[in-house]
Amino acid sequence: MTNLSIAPPNLPDRQIGRSLENPVPRDSWAGRVRPLLAFGRFEVGRLLRSWKFLAITIGFPVIFYMLFLGDHTAGKVVDGTVPWRIYLMVSMCSFGALVAALNAAGTRLSMERASGWARQLRITPIPAWSYVGTKIVASMLVVFPVIVLVEAVGAGFGDVRLAATTWIELTVLIWATSLPFAVLGVFIGFLVTTEAAFPVVTGLMFVLGYFGGLFTPVDQMPGSLQFVAHLVPSYHQVSLAIASLDGHTLALTHWLVLAGCVAVLGLAIVWKHRVEEARGLA
Amino acid sequence: MSSPVTALLGPLAISPSPRPVALSFQSVTHRYGSRVALDKLDLDVPLGEVLALLGPNGAGKSTTISALLGLVRPQEGRVEVLGGDPRQSVAAGRVGAMLQAASGIGLPPGVRVDEALGLVRRLYRRPAPRDQIVERANIGALLRRRTDRLSGGEAQRVRFAIAIAGDPEVVFLDEPTSAMDVESRQGFWRMMRAFGDEGRTVLFATHHLAEADEIADRVVVLNHGKVVADGPGATLKAAVATRRLRFIYDRPDRADFSDLEGLTEVEIRGTCVSIDSLDADATIRDLVSRGVPFRDLEVTGAGLEQAFVTLTGCRAVEADPSAIPTGCESAVAQVRHEP
């Protein structure tokens, strides 16, 4: 039979933690930021050490770039004025950002939510938004080197010659306009199950890539597809990048659509989170 | 649920403690859609108590813990942790928890154990010393291992380490031993009891009745979101007059025991029969009059399991290997050794 003795509860012989009468003083600025930096480092470190993640994010854009390079003859012009080799590099930068952002967040987030790790982090002192916030920041951080890598391929093999300041401008512009992809990756992680996450992410990579005109320039698409392209962030990202290279003013519409995507996806994440919280699942 | 047992428990329940209250539910009701998870729940847990929350699936155990962590906001009533809102305590790093993992292990894949622990420690302003956590949770040998290559029991130890990483005053554990074998479970409870003995408040949910009985200062039985019993494990058992009869019967047949006097439960394992009875004397008289050739008869006070069945009207959901009566095992062994 089991031992039936019930030990009397031991009284605390020392004060554990803080007393009830003295609420914890508000954290200093450093005290608030340091945990988030640790979390961010942890996330980026995990991504950069994942063999699978690196193979996909480096492999897809670079191999696609090489394939397209071999397939098209130089001297072709897109949209009347843009040389194909420039358009191609910008498209592949956009594709690289899309692949990196979706793969960084989508699959992992879905898995972490299912396994309870996301909840475990929610019951630590970091604020509730910081889980999503850190995921988006981590995605953006891994997107940056992918853009630079594709540009290096462009400079090395793609016959792209630009002034140093133009390179920097282009990089920053493509990087900043990749935010919708980072938010989309997080939303997918919230939306789909672990089993569905990988196929959904992979599917979206190609769907958003194709309809955004990354594989075939939008002006060479049939009219109805051109309309669809105008709803895809990739198209607006590439348009902005091309406009900046041409010295054109950056059309407000493109910015508005990209900002709208971020806003809609952000709200969708908040909505999904609320629904799950109400069900006791979050 | 109102059973005569509940009424009987009233005067037996321990008197209110003079110690300050660590956790408190005041008439808390919570529904998921139309399903009531907590039904006007009232519960006070004094500082430094180790409390077991017992109940079948869907009794409200996980919702209780979620409410204490601020993960669930009950629609009615008030939940307080350390004298304030649950979310304040979480934000201040004063509570830790080991939650139930819906799937997987509840740890981030692709990192080493020491990295995951290191991260969680950095999220707290005043974490417990690393070596202390490692020693308490007994994870020294696991630190360099990858989280996705741990066994169920190892992963639970790591999750316990993560639960106590912030040096919490209060710890909640939602069925922490569900993935463990008997040995790891015993080690785990020693670990947790030692943690409670430092004066920290511990609340754990479990299906394992023997564990609740052995480890906790106090056992609260929940059913349909309400407290149906509350007291030290021994009190619960005393409240239920059930006795367990065990004997050897070479050709046991369930039909032999149908409508037996006082019988509530029959279990047959090989030649070993275990009968729970509300009136042991009458049951034995009935067995004799039926001419059942029993031998090696043993009558004991039934464990908390029977008290639980009586209180909630349902059986513990999970098979509990530790609940196999030990006397019975040795009896079986004896039989095997007979020529």
Which features does this protein show?
heterodimer; A: 282 residues; mainly alpha; two-stranded antiparallel sheet; 1% strand; disordered N terminus; B: 339 residues; alpha/beta; Rossmann fold; Alpha-Beta Plaits; 2 domains; 6-stranded mixed sheet; 4-stranded antiparallel sheet; 12 helices; 26% strand; globular; disordered C terminus
Task: Describe the structure in your own words.
The complex is a heterodimer of chains A (282) and B (339). Chain A has one domain (34-278). Helix content of chain A is 70%, strand content 1%. Chain A has helices spanning 29-48, 51-71, 84-115, 117-122, 130-156, 164-176, 179-191, 194-211, 223-229, 233-246, 252-278, and strands at 77-78, 82-83. The longest helix of chain A has 32 residues, at 84-115. Chain A starts with 28 loop residues before the first helix and ends with a helix. Residues 1-25 of chain A have low confidence and may be disordered. With 339 residues, chain B is of the alpha/beta class. Chain B folds into two domains: 4-238, Rossmann fold, CATH 3.40.50.300; 241-337, Alpha-Beta Plaits. Chain B has twelve helices and 13 strands. Chain B has a six-stranded mixed beta sheet with strand order 5-6-7-3-8-9, sandwiched between helices. A four-stranded antiparallel beta sheet of chain B has the order 11-12-10-13, covered by helices on one side. In chain B, strands 2-1-4 form a three-stranded antiparallel beta sheet, covered by helices on one side. Chain B is globular, with a radius of gyration of 22 Å.
Please provide a brief summary of the model.
The complex is a heterodimer of chains A (282) and B (339). Chain A contains eleven helices and two strands; from the N terminus they run H-H-E-E-H-H-H-H-H-H-H-H-H. With 282 residues, chain A is mainly α.
